[in-house]
């Protein structure tokens, strides 16, 4: 069976995520401890005890989601050694987990790269306030056309049919909401986010992250890697670097990436980490076979499915 590992992004975090794996599997506990040691801070305590406001801060949530996803992945691969992906992908931050899971960058190097990404994006959020909103009941093409010419508005995520996210200044998003509703959008739902991710307001974060990506010891891998900016498989180290850099300000083409994997014959999409957001999106895209690893009991169900 051709399996794709897919990894969640920022926003999936919940206080206590991964604690059952930490308590039950040595390899998971070691992953959390390794992260704490490398970061020289108590990230695990924030993950397990919160408070939610602290965990949700960009500088913490990105690291937390990456570490939890990797702890669950390492446990799954230890318990189910035949579980080998044909491809990996992740939503926004989750792309870094996919980078590591596909063998292109080691855990330590990816963790430290995520720390810089989180720090720079957190700073950008503080310096240039912004927000995001989900637009429902309207095609992506209609949304792109609808926001064209509006100041301070970008299309941030092409998540699934009928679900697209816009990003930008608070004034820009308010104006876009009015315009899109006039053009037929059913709902424009403000998102509880720290800033305007995947928009031009993140340009300073992208510029600051580039030197760290350029220095990262990224390698080639025989596991397919589907990236957000292209919405397709990306080959070659230089192309991977280019896409990681651009991803900070460019749109996330999740729907297109899933379609690319469908064309390559992926039979099972396995979401690894907190929540089932990607599983829900994938079903809307038309994926018939999805599974997730979030709780310990999920390991048995995945074993049965594979």
Would you kindly provide a brief summary of this structure?
The chain is 51% helix and 16% strand. By secondary structure, the protein is of the alpha/beta class. A 6-stranded mixed sheet has the order 8-7-2-1-9-10, sandwiched between helices. The protein has a 4-stranded antiparallel sheet with strand order 4-5-3-6.
Give helix and strand order, one letter per element, not per position: EHHHHHEHHEHEEHEHEEHHEHEH
By DSSP, the count of extended strands is: 10
Tell me the distance between the termini.
Answer: 7 Å
Sum up the overall morphology in one term: globular
- List the strand order in the largest sheet: 8-7-2-1-9-10
- The helicity comes to 40-55%
- Which oligomeric state applies? single chain
Overview of the structural elements:
The chain has 2 domains: 3-126 and 200-305, Malonyl-Coenzyme A Acyl Carrier Protein, domain 2, CATH 3.40.366.10; 131-190, Alpha-Beta Plaits, CATH 3.30.70.250. The chain starts with a strand and ends with a helix. The strands form 2 sheets. Strands 8-7-2-1-9-10 form a 6-stranded mixed beta sheet, sandwiched between helices. By secondary structure, it is of the alpha/beta class. Helix 5 (58-79) runs parallel beside helix 6, helix 7 runs antiparallel to helix 10 and helix 10 runs antiparallel to helix 11. It contains 14 helices and 10 strands. The model has no long low-confidence stretch (mean pLDDT 96). Helix content is 51%, strand content 16%.
Which descriptors apply to this entry?
Alpha-Beta Plaits; 10 strands; four-stranded antiparallel sheet; 2 domains; 306 residues; Malonyl-Coenzyme A Acyl Carrier Protein, domain 2; globular; six-stranded mixed sheet; alpha/beta; single chain
């Amino acid at each position: 069976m051709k399996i794709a590992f897919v990894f969640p992004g920022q926003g999936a975090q919940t206080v206590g995520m991964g604690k059952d794996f930490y308590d039950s599997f040595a390899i998971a506990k070691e992953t959390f401890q390794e992260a704490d040691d490398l970061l020289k801070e108590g990230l695990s305590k924030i993950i397990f005890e919160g408070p939610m406001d602290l965990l949700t801060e960009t500088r913490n949530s990105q690291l937390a989601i990456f570490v939890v996803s990797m702890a669950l992945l390492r446990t799954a691969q230890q318990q189910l050694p035949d579980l080998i992906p044909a491809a990996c992908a992740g939503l926004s931050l989750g792309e870094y987990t996919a980078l590591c899971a596909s063998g292109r960058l080691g855990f330590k190097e990816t963790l430290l790269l995520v720390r810089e990404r989180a720090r720079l994006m957190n700073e950008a959020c503080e310096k240039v306030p912004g927000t995001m909103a989900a637009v429902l009941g309207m095609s992506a093409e209609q949304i792109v056309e609808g926001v064209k010419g509006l100041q301070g508005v970008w299309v941030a995520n092409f998540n699934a049919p009928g679900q697209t996210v816009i990003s930008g200044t608070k004034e820009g998003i308010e104006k876009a909401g009015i315009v899109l509703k006039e053009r037929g959008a059913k709902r424009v739902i403000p998102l509880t986010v720290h800033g305007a991710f995947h928009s031009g307001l993140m340009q300073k974060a992208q510029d600051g992250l580039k030197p760290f990506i350029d220095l990262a010891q990224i390698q080639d891998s025989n596991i397919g890697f589907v990236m957000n900016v292209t919405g397709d498989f990306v080959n070659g180290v230089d192309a991977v670097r280019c896409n990681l850099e651009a991803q900070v300000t460019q749109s996330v083409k999740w729907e297109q990436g899933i379609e690319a994997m469908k064309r390559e014959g992926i039979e099972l999409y396995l979401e690894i980490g907190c929540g089932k957001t990607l599983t829900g999106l994938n079903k809307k895209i038309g994926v018939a076979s999805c599974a997730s690893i979030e709780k310990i009991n999920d390991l048995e169900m995945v074993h049965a499915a594979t």
